[in-house]
């Protein structure tokens, strides 16, 4: 079945260019000019597989749109399209729940590569339930669900993959590069440090629901699931 991509950008020419290219690559597309249109279209098309979401748009920008999307518990994967080059602007999107970002100008081949990586980690191809249980956390690898004290925790696909990887082998240290390759599916230049943002978000979500699990920083290397947690 073809994947359905929503392209949200106020630049008509760019939006149509991306749409045409993706259709030629075997995807179906829906286009929106701003965040308001995108949120409305998502209500009509809940089967959208991934969003390409521009940051700078009139009426409702990408950050506000993403915030409202995640506040509504919508976990559709999102790749931010941004002309901003400052690292803080890129990390802001990740902190709000984006799965990746692409800086303009970009090649359409890069867009497809990033989409494939995000879609790979956001989908589960397993048919039988597989579980990881560590301290107060229960992880269902088939349904991509995480529970703390029986309460479901809403994680992004990237956060889930990081947690499952660390929890599967407590005490093992994973470098940022290893976690990036595992969680993102691809190694992208200058992306390594964004793992810190995903881990920070993950820690907060677990703490907010009362988990005592410690995702420990191993300075100069990466992270591990605390043995003594």
Category by helix and strand content: alpha/beta
Mean pLDDT: 86
Largest sheet: 5 strands, parallel
Question: What is the CATH H-level superfamily of the largest domain?
Answer: Response regulator
- CATH architectural designation of the largest domain: 3-Layer(aba) Sandwich
Whole-angstrom Rg? 18 Å
Distance between the termini: 42 Å
| CATH topology label of the largest domain | Rossmann fold
Which percent range fits the helix content? 40-55%
Low-pLDDT ranges: 124-128
- Number of DSSP E strands: 12
Count the DSSP helices. 8
State the domain count: 2
Strand ordering within the main sheet: 2-1-3-4-5
Shape: globular
CATH class of the largest domain: Alpha Beta
**N-to-C SSE series?**
EHEHEHEHEHEEEEHEHHEE
Structural overview:
The chain has helices at residues 12-24, 35-44, 62-71, 87-95, 108-122, 157-168, 176-184, 194-208, and strands spanning 4-8, 28-32, 50-54, 78-82, 100-103, 131-134, 137-140, 145-148, 151-153, 174-175, 215-218, 222-225. With 229 residues, it is an alpha/beta fold. It folds into two domains: 4-122, Rossmann fold (3-Layer(aba) Sandwich); 131-225, Orthogonal Bundle (Arc Repressor Mutant, subunit A). A hairpin with a 4-residue loop joins strand 7 and strand 8. Helix 2 packs parallel to helix 3 (62-71), helix 6 crosses helix 7 and helix 6 (157-168) packs across helix 8 (194-208). The longest helix is centred in the middle third of the chain and has 15 residues, at 108-122. The model is unreliable at 124-128 (pLDDT under 50).
């Amino acid at each position: 079945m073809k994947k359905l991509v929503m392209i949200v950008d106020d630049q008509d020419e760019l939006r149509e260019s991306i749409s045409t290219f993706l259709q030629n690559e075997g995807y179906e597309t829906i286009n929106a000019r701003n965040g308001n249109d995108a949120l409305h279209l998502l209500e009509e098309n809940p089967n959208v597989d991934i969003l390409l979401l521009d940051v700078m748009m009139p009426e409702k920008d990408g950050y506000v749109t993403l915030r409202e999307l995640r506040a509504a518990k919508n976990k559709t994967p999102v790749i931010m399209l941004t002309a901003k080059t400052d690292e803080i602007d890129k990390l802001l999107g990740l902190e709000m729940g984006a799965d990746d970002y692409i800086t303009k100008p970009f090649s359409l081949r890069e867009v497809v590569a990033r989409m494939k990586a995000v879609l790979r980690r956001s989908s589960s191809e397993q048919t039988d339930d597989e579980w990881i249980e560590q301290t107060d956390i229960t992880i269902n690898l088939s349904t991509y669900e995480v529970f703390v004290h029986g309460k479901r925790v809403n994680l992004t696909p990237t956060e889930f993959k990081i947690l499952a990887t660390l929890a599967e082998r407590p005490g093992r240290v994973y470098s940022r590069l290893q976690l990036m390759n595992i969680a993102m599916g691809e190694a992208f230049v200058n992306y390594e440090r964004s793992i810190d943002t995903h881990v920070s978000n993950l820690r907060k979500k677990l703490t907010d629901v009362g988990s005592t699990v410690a995702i420990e920083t191993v300075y100069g290397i990466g992270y591990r699931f605390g043995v003594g947690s």
